[in-house]
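Entry 14. Ran structure prediction on the chain below.
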Amino acid sequence: MEMTMAVPVSFTAGALDEIRRLMSAPEFDATKHLRIGVKGGGCSGLSYVLGFDDREADDSEFEFEGQSFIMNKSHAIYLMGMQIDWANGLNARGFTFNNPNASKTCGCGTSFAV
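Output, structure tokens:
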């Protein structure tokens, strides 16, 4: 298992609580890993990926405050320094992404350009 010193992404306490809540659900597949990444598409060119997935050959594994996650090695350049939060308000509910590398974001908050 490869562990890298520079963790590219951080989580707020609220995001960690929600991730751990999802992982403790009876229907959670314990063979899956938390994946963070990007994919092409979205209003601004790239969209964030946050979900549970199988580990692949090009993945690196990281840990932040006891929470491990995987990321494709080529995605770190887009996500270095990003913070993931969990919003649980009346107007917004879900994970939010604060990415210092994004030159432009869209109103949905899940799409960005670099």
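Helices lie at 13-23, 76-79. Will compare against last week's run tomorrow.
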